[in-house]
Structure formats: structure tokens, C-alpha cells
């Protein structure tokens, strides 16, 4: 049996557009000799459709699309993901897959295991399958699973489920396992998926064909990396990462290929590029604008944007104040020249002086502090938003995860924007990414990477005047935010108590800022936003 992988990038809610994409891919693969074409999870609706499913016409129109796909099926079968109605008790819908064959009734499999942790909320919408059974197709018994259905306990946060869909399908005679997936990207996730699928194949001595979605949908990035493994767990096919692709793989393929892990900075660069590109495209923006401070964060975002959108669609803005160093302005100029992007110069020193003068009497006798410091990023935000309104650019905010975690950022200032490209990338990883970008030539000025980081909002300011060294801060944040360790547990690992308590308190106190931040692209195991839900008004301190 020849399985055609349709590794697609659907848009959430674009039912007609997704239909067209599925049909084109199906027809190409069928013409190339596929017996069955396999799509990702919820390919018809895009993943995750969230509360769109509650709109009165959304699911009925989805079912009409499935019928239209059935009418287009020729000699090859099509296995496609969609949202089905639940006609019985429980939640109103099923996460489903339809097996479409010419001249035969539509056969439907429902997802059994519904993830409701981290970024997932499927239990809000879907009822799990009441039973599973293999389908006869092309003379072969196929076991249809949907994403989480093949994630075994060893690879889950904790034991979550009481049933094993794959085992039940095998017990009923399934000869191969097909999986429609929408598995979001995080660093090292492709290797984890391969290990899991290979282990499952060895356990049951069956080949597994795993088709993953690709593309960016809001904060989530789907990396593709679809795979096929033989009964011994050997990798027999791996589709490219971060782009659509079609490939036919035979179920009797035996020759295994090596699984090679892509370096983390390279994974990160392509993930963020795809997330940014799709966010603009799917939200109908054509171009982006961002402030270029001469610092490493804005430099990395600009380089990603130029790669993702084309340099002709990116505008950088240099907005120096009296505290901006000459080197920072020169670094911004050099970066823009290296990337080939337009650079506008709009100094804010005069505007800042006028703005401060309005408070001369009200602030009389009071020393300057973070009040005046924060005026500057807010003036810069107004400048960027004016350019956005006038020219239709999307404003990219350039703050990293380390800053966002401890509130070292200005609400309505440098946090303002339509997309926070690197808000899930710790500062130490920003430096790794910058050095990777410079592996062949100096894209980001070396001076930008080497100089001490500074917000440049007052004379001789350095980040480390306020923050712990980033190497320590990022490790503490990883344990506190991503691993959910208590301050006492972290201190028990040998970290300075005063520093740990400071970081803990800053993370907790700045939840209100993060609630108002632009949506960010998720690339680590736990991002602020959809995957981490904390109350703003709360008083728990361990």
C-alpha cells in the first residue's frame, strides 16, 4: 500500500481555502500513485478552531466540505481531519477523521484521547470516541488515530488516560497505524516525536505513518516533520520541517534512514520565521515595522522578519534619545544595511523634552526615576503605531522572555505591538541565535552582540544594574516558570536565596503586564500566555 503524505498548512476557519488546498494535494498524490492520501488533524478547519465551533454555521459548513471532498475522490482513498457533530450525550463535537473512498459510504473515526493541558483545551469542545475499530481499505486493515491517541504515558506530563487506542486497534487486527496530527513545535520536539513513534512501532510490530500539520496559527507553530517508521521502529521517511510537502511512502519499505537532530538555533530561527510569516499572511498584513535600538533583541527580530517576509516588506525605525549611545545608532544603521531593509530616523529627544515639560510643575521637587524612563519607550510606541496606522504595517515588539518574565519592560511602551516575535526566547538563547545567524557572515553587527545589554533610558544604564546575570536569571526562570518548582526547591539546588526570592516575586507581580502583552510565538515547553494561566490578583507566596 502506498501512503501519500499531504503535509499541509491550513488556515483556521478558511473552509473553502482549506478545501482547495486538500484537493490540489490529493490530486497530485493520487496521480503519482498513492493508494491513500493522509492529511493532518483537523485539516478542513485548521487547528485549533477554538470557539469557532460554537458558531451556528461553522460545523454544518465543515460537514458540507467533507461531502464535497468525498465527491472529488477518485481511485485513491483520502483520510482527512475535520470537526464532527456528536449526536449523543456529552460535549457537542468530535475531533474526527473521515475515510473517503469512491462509491463507498464515509467512514469516520473519532479521537479518543483529548489533551487538556498546556496549550490544549480539547475537552472544552470534543467528546472522546466511544469505541475504536480498524477500517478495511485497499485490502489492508488500517488503524486510524488522531494526534494524542498515540502519545504513550512515558511522553506525557503524567498518566492521563485509561485507554490505549493503538493497542485496541492492533487487537482488532490493524495491520498499519495511520496518525493525523497537529502537534505544536517546541525545541527538540521532533526528536521526541520520532522516539515515541519508533517505540510504539517496535512495541506492536506495526508500521506507523504520522502526518503532522505545518504552519503558524496565532501563538502556535506547527513544524511538519511528518514521519513513517517500519515495524522495527526504523525511520523510512521524514518530510521537511517548517514547509508544506508531499511524499509517497510504501508500507512495505524496510530500508531505514538516520534521524538527524537539527541544531537548536536553526530550529528556532525557522520556527520563528514561519510563525511570523503566517501570522502576517493569515491576518492580512503585508509588511512589518519595528524599532531598531542597536541592541541584540531588535536585531534578531529584524533579521527574522527580513528572512520571513522579504527585506522589502520590513521597516526599521531608529528613535534615539539623548541617552542613546552613538554606537547603538551606528549598529542600527549597519544592521539595516546588512539586511537590506528600509531604516527611518525619528529621534525622540526633542519630543521627550517637551513631554517632560508638561509635568514640570506637577513633578516639582521630585527626583527623576522610572517615570521619566518609561516616557521614552511609550513615545517610541506612539511613533511605531503612527507608522502602522498610516502605512498598514504590523508592529513587531522585540522583548525577550527573560525581560517579560520579570517585568523589565514598559507596558504601552516596548511591549506595544501586534506580535511579540521573541517573547518565548530567553536572553541567553537570543545570543545563541544571533551568533548562529552570523555563522557565515556578519549579519548582526558583532558590536551589537558583544556590548553589555542596556535599555539606554538613563546615563550609563546596564541591564545587570537591575537584573541578575542572564545566565543565572534564565536558569532560575526555567525552573520557576517551565518546571513549576517552588522557590524553596530552587534554593535547595544551591542558588542564592535572595536572588531566587527576587526573581520569584518579580515573576508573580508582573502577571498584569503579561496579560496585556502582544501575542507571542511559543517555542519552549511553557510560554507565557495560552499555555500558562495565572491569576493577576493573588497572594500566594511559597
**If helices are DSSP runs of H or I spanning 4 or more residues, what is the number of helices?**
16
Record field, number of beta strands: 19
Indicate the percent of residues in helices: 25-40%
Distance between the termini: 57 Å
Mean pLDDT: 94
- Major sheet characteristics: 6 strands, mixed
Cα shape? elongated
Can you tell me the residue ranges where pLDDT is under 50 for at least 5 consecutive residues? none
CATH class of the largest domain: Alpha Beta
Domain unit count: 2
Structural class: alpha/beta
CATH topology of the largest domain: Nitrilase/N-carbamoyl-D-aminoacid amidohydrolase
What is the strand arrangement across the widest sheet?
5-4-3-2-1-14
CATH homologous superfamily grouping of the largest domain: Carbon-nitrogen hydrolase
- Percentage beta strand: 15-25%
How large, in whole angstroms, is the Cα Rg? Answer: 25 Å
Proper CATH architecture of the largest domain: 4-Layer Sandwich
Quaternary structure classification: single chain
Amino acid at each position: 500500500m502506498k501512503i501519500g503524505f499531504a503535509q499541509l498548512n491550513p488556515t483556521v476557519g478558511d473552509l473553502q481555502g482549506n478545501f482547495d488546498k486538500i484537493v490540489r494535494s490529493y490530486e497530485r498524490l493520487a496521480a503519482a500513485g498513492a493508494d491513500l492520501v493522509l492529511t493532518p488533524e483537523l485539516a478542513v478547519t485548521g487547528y485549533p478552531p477554538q470557539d469557532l465551533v460554537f458558531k451556528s454555521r461553522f460545523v454544518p459548513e465543515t460537514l458540507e466540505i467533507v461531502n464535497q471532498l468525498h465527491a472529488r475522490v477518485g481511485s485513491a482513498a483520502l483520510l482527512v481531519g475535520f470537526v464532527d457533530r456528536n449526536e449523543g450525550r456529552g460535549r457537542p463535537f468530535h475531533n474526527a477523521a473521515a475515510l473517503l473512498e469512491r462509491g463507498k459510504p464515509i467512514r469516520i473515526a473519532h479521537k479518543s484521547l483529548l489533551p487538556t493541558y498546556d496549550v490544549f483545551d480539547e475537552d472544552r469542545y470534543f467528546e472522546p470516541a466511544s469505541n475504536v475499530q480498524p477500517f478495511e481499505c485497499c485490502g489492508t486493515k488500517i488503524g486510524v488515530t488522531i494526534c494524542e491517541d498515540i502519545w504513550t504515558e512515558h511522553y506525557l506530563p503524567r498518566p492521563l488516560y485509561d485507554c490505549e487506542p493503538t493497542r485496541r486497534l492492533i487487537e482488532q487486527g490493524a495491520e498499519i497505524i495511520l496518525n493525523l496530527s497537529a502537534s505544536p513545535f517546541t525545541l527538540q520536539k521532533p526528536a521526541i516525536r520520532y522516539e515515541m513513534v519508533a517505540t510504539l512501532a517496535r512495541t506492536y510490530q506495526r508500521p506507523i505513518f504520522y502526518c503532522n500539520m505545518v504552519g503558524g496559527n496565532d501563538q502556535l507553530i506547527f513544524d511538519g516533520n511528518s514521519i513513517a517508521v517500519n515495524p522495527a521502529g526504523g525511520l523510512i521517511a521524514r518530510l521537511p520541517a517548517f514547509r508544506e510537502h508531499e511524499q509517497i511512502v510504501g508500507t512495505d519499505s524496510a530500508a531505514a534512514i538516520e534521524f538527524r537532530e537539527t541544531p537548536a538555533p536553526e530550529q528556532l530561527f525557522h520556527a520563528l520565521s514561519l510563525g511570523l510569516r503566517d501570522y502576517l499572511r493569515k491576518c492580512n498584513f503585508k509588511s512589518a515595522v519595528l524599532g531598531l535600538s542597536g541592541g541584540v533583541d531588535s536585531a534578531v527580530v529584524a533579521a527574522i522578519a527580513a528572512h520571513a517576509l522579504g527585506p522589502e516588506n520590513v521597516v526599521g525605525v531608529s528613535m534615539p534619545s539623548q541617552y542613546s549611545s552613538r554606537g547603538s545608532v551606528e549598529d542600527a544603521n549597519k544592521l539595516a544595511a546588512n539586511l537590506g531593509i528600509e531604516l527611518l530616523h525619528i529621534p525622540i529627544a526633542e519630543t521627550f523634552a517637551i513631554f517632560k515639560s508638561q509635568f514640570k510643575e506637577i513633578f516639582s521637587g521630585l527626583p527623576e526615576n522610572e517615570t521619566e524612563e518609561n516616557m521614552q519607550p511609550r513615545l517610541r510606541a506612539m511613533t511605531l503605531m503612527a507608522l502602522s496606522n498610516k502605512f498598514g504595517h504590523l508592529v513587531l515588539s522585540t522583548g525577550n522572555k527573560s525581560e517579560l518574565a520579570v517585568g523589565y519592560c514598559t507596558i504601552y511602551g516596548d511591549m506595544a505591538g501586534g506580535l511579540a516575535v521573541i517573547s518565548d526566547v530567553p536572553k541567553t538563547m537570543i545570543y545563541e541565535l544571533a551568533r548562529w545567524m552570523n555563522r557565515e557572515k556578519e549579519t548582526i553587527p558583532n558590536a551589537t552582540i558583544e556590548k553589555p545589554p542596556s535599555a539606554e533610558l538613563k546615563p550609563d544604564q546596564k541591564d545587570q544594574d537591575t537584573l541578575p546575570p542572564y545566565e543565572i536569571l534564565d536558569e532560575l526562570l526555567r525552573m520557576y516558570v517551565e518546571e513549576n518548582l517552588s522557590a524553596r526547591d530552587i534554593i535547595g539546588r544551591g542558588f542564592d536565596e535572595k536572588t531566587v526570592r527576587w526573581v520569584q516575586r518579580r515573576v508573580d507581580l508582573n502577571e498584569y503586564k503579561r496579560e496585556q502583552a502582544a501575542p507571542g510565538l511559543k517555542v519552549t515547553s511553557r510560554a507565557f500566555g495560552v499555555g500558562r494561566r495565572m491569576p493577576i490578583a493573588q497572594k500566594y507566596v511559597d
